[in-house]
């Protein structure tokens, strides 16, 4: 799928309207007050927007016609437009969604049995520059609002016409560099007035922004945390993940201990095995040391091909050896192999994790 951030911004007039999905409940009440409307209309409107995901004010059949007209002048409701899709023979669908200002992101819906897992993006592009990542190469375009993150999930829901059972924020972007919008989206996804998905089935994946992991540990909901580790050797991790160089592995280790103590929840560590880079005996030993003695699940990811990348995936045998060695020190590990999938491989890693989390 091509990057479509080159899309032209839409007409000026549309941009001046307020994005209704970016408004808080209080702001909506204020707007309705200005229009001389009673407060209960806010709840009605929110139901149309967040539960029913309508794309036009005309569909809000329990609102007076005049209010619908006022709202459509004052606010936009558009939601993203699908400008591309890829469909896999295994049933997953990857969408390219474009927002009003022309910026676009990817989102994946993956049905398994009676479940539907969705992988959504939190930013258009990413500033973290991980050496093996396709998104990292292009840099950050902009962060998404909570509404924009949420809408991706609703897009998949409506396209599959099925209830979404889990969401992973593992698409483009670093969620913890866009913390408030990420939390806003998670809360909306969790809320019975929104998508109504259980907090444990909502997962955030971070490259390890320590102050935000600390903050996340203090949130009242039981959201799930995944941390992209990719190496437990400082020098290797600095090379693979330059965006988090300033947070040492020792510091990450300490904060994750604190996270587990505080929440009692088991974090996942993502580890894409790269031949000759992070799959040596030393690397394996360091990973075992990092994970042992604390709650941890390791997700060994098959490295996806990225155009012009110097990195190669490790062999399957090497991955199995990692699982065995981690198991020997009491750490659960799983390998997910996305080979055979006909959908663009760039999102294979998302699929694997979604499969695990939606089980
Ligand atoms: N910024 C967040 C979430 C987005 S990426 C994070 O870093 O966790 C989701 C996962 O895919 C991360 O673990 C990321 O490191 C991994 N990933 C990125 N490019 C990959 C590739 N080419 N092959 C395998 N995994 C990759």
Automatic annotation (TrEMBL):
<keyword id="KW-1015">Disulfide bond</keyword>
<feature type="domain" description="Radical SAM core">
    <location>
        <begin position="112"/>
        <end position="342"/>
    </location>
</feature>
<feature type="active site" description="S-methylcysteine intermediate">
    <location>
        <position position="347"/>
    </location>
</feature>
<keyword id="KW-0004">4Fe-4S</keyword>
<protein>
    <recommendedName>
        <fullName>Probable dual-specificity RNA methyltransferase RlmN</fullName>
        <ecNumber>2.1.1.192</ecNumber>
    </recommendedName>
</protein>
<dbReference type="GO" id="GO:0051539">
    <property type="term" value="F:4 iron, 4 sulfur cluster binding"/>
</dbReference>
<dbReference type="InterPro" id="IPR007197">
    <property type="entry name" value="rSAM"/>
</dbReference>
<dbReference type="InterPro" id="IPR004383">
    <property type="entry name" value="rRNA_lsu_MTrfase_RlmN/Cfr"/>
</dbReference>
<dbReference type="GO" id="GO:0030488">
    <property type="term" value="P:tRNA methylation"/>
</dbReference>
<dbReference type="GO" id="GO:0070475">
    <property type="term" value="P:rRNA base methylation"/>
</dbReference>
<keyword id="KW-0963">Cytoplasm</keyword>
<feature type="binding site">
    <location>
        <position position="126"/>
    </location>
    <ligand>
        <name>[4Fe-4S] cluster</name>
    </ligand>
</feature>
<dbReference type="GO" id="GO:0070040">
    <property type="term" value="F:rRNA (adenine(2503)-C2-)-methyltransferase activity"/>
</dbReference>
<keyword id="KW-0489">Methyltransferase</keyword>
<dbReference type="InterPro" id="IPR058240">
    <property type="entry name" value="rSAM_sf"/>
</dbReference>
<dbReference type="InterPro" id="IPR027492">
    <property type="entry name" value="RNA_MTrfase_RlmN"/>
</dbReference>
<comment type="similarity">
    <text>Belongs to the radical SAM superfamily. RlmN family.</text>
</comment>
<dbReference type="Pfam" id="PF21016">
    <property type="entry name" value="RlmN_N"/>
</dbReference>
<dbReference type="Pfam" id="PF04055">
    <property type="entry name" value="Radical_SAM"/>
</dbReference>
<keyword id="KW-0479">Metal-binding</keyword>
<dbReference type="InterPro" id="IPR040072">
    <property type="entry name" value="Methyltransferase_A"/>
</dbReference>
<feature type="binding site">
    <location>
        <position position="304"/>
    </location>
    <ligand>
        <name>S-adenosyl-L-methionine</name>
    </ligand>
</feature>
<feature type="binding site">
    <location>
        <position position="130"/>
    </location>
    <ligand>
        <name>[4Fe-4S] cluster</name>
    </ligand>
</feature>
<keyword id="KW-0808">Transferase</keyword>
<feature type="binding site">
    <location>
        <position position="133"/>
    </location>
    <ligand>
        <name>[4Fe-4S] cluster</name>
    </ligand>
</feature>
<feature type="binding site">
    <location>
        <begin position="173"/>
        <end position="174"/>
    </location>
    <ligand>
        <name>S-adenosyl-L-methionine</name>
    </ligand>
</feature>
<dbReference type="GO" id="GO:0002935">
    <property type="term" value="F:tRNA (adenine(37)-C2)-methyltransferase activity"/>
</dbReference>
<feature type="binding site">
    <location>
        <position position="205"/>
    </location>
    <ligand>
        <name>S-adenosyl-L-methionine</name>
    </ligand>
</feature>
<keyword id="KW-0819">tRNA processing</keyword>
<dbReference type="InterPro" id="IPR013785">
    <property type="entry name" value="Aldolase_TIM"/>
</dbReference>
<keyword id="KW-0411">Iron-sulfur</keyword>
<dbReference type="InterPro" id="IPR048641">
    <property type="entry name" value="RlmN_N"/>
</dbReference>
<dbReference type="GO" id="GO:0005737">
    <property type="term" value="C:cytoplasm"/>
</dbReference>
<keyword id="KW-0408">Iron</keyword>
<dbReference type="GO" id="GO:0019843">
    <property type="term" value="F:rRNA binding"/>
</dbReference>
<keyword id="KW-0698">rRNA processing</keyword>
<keyword id="KW-0949">S-adenosyl-L-methionine</keyword>
<feature type="binding site">
    <location>
        <begin position="228"/>
        <end position="230"/>
    </location>
    <ligand>
        <name>S-adenosyl-L-methionine</name>
    </ligand>
</feature>
<dbReference type="GO" id="GO:0046872">
    <property type="term" value="F:metal ion binding"/>
</dbReference>
<feature type="region of interest" description="Disordered">
    <location>
        <begin position="1"/>
        <end position="20"/>
    </location>
</feature>
<comment type="function">
    <text>Specifically methylates position 2 of adenine 2503 in 23S rRNA and position 2 of adenine 37 in tRNAs.</text>
</comment>
<dbReference type="GO" id="GO:0000049">
    <property type="term" value="F:tRNA binding"/>
</dbReference>
């Amino acid at each position: 799928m091509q990057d479509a951030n080159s899309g032209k911004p839409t007409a000026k007039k549309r941009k001046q309207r307020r994005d209704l999905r970016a408004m808080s409940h209080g702001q909506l009440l204020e707007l309705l007050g200005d229009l001389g409307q009673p407060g209960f209309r806010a709840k009605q409107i929110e139901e149309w927007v967040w539960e029913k995901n309508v794309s036009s004010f005309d569909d809000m059949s329990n609102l007076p016609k005049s209010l619908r007209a006022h709202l459509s002048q004052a606010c936009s409701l558009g939601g993203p437009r699908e400008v591309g899709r890829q469909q896999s023979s295994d049933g997953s669908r990857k969408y390219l969604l474009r927002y009003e200002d022309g910026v676009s992101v990817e989102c994946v819906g993956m049905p398994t049995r009676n479940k539907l897992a969705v992988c959504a993006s939190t930013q258009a592009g990413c500033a973290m520059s991980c050496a093996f990542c396709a998104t990292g190469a292009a840099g950050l375009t902009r962060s998404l609002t909570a509404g924009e993150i949420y809408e991706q999930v609703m897009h998949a829901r409506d396209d599959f016409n099925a209830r979404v059972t889990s969401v992973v924020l593992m698409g483009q972007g670093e969620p913890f560099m866009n913390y408030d919008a990420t939390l806003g989206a998670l809360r909306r996804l969790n809320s019975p007035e929104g998508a109504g998905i259980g907090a444990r089935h909502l997962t955030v994946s971070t490259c390890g922004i320590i102050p935000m992991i600390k903050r996340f540990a203090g949130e009242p909901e039981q959201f799930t945390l995944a941390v992209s580790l990719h190496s437990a050797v400082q020098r290797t991790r600095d090379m693979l993940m330059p965006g988090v160089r300033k947070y040492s592995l020792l510091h990450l280790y300490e904060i994750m201990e604190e996270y587990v103590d505080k929440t009692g929840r088991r974090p996942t560590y993502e580890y894409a095995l790269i031949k000759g880079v992070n799959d040596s005996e030393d690397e394996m030993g360091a990973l075992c040391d990092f994970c042992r003695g604390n709650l941890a699940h390791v997700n060994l990811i098959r490295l996806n091909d990225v155009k012009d990348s110097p990195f190669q995936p490790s062999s399957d045998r090497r991955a199995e050896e990692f699982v065995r060695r981690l198991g020997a020190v009491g750490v659960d590990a799983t390998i997910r192999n996305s080979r055979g999938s006909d959908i663009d491989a760039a999102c294979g890693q998302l699929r694997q994790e979604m499969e695990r989390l939606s089980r």
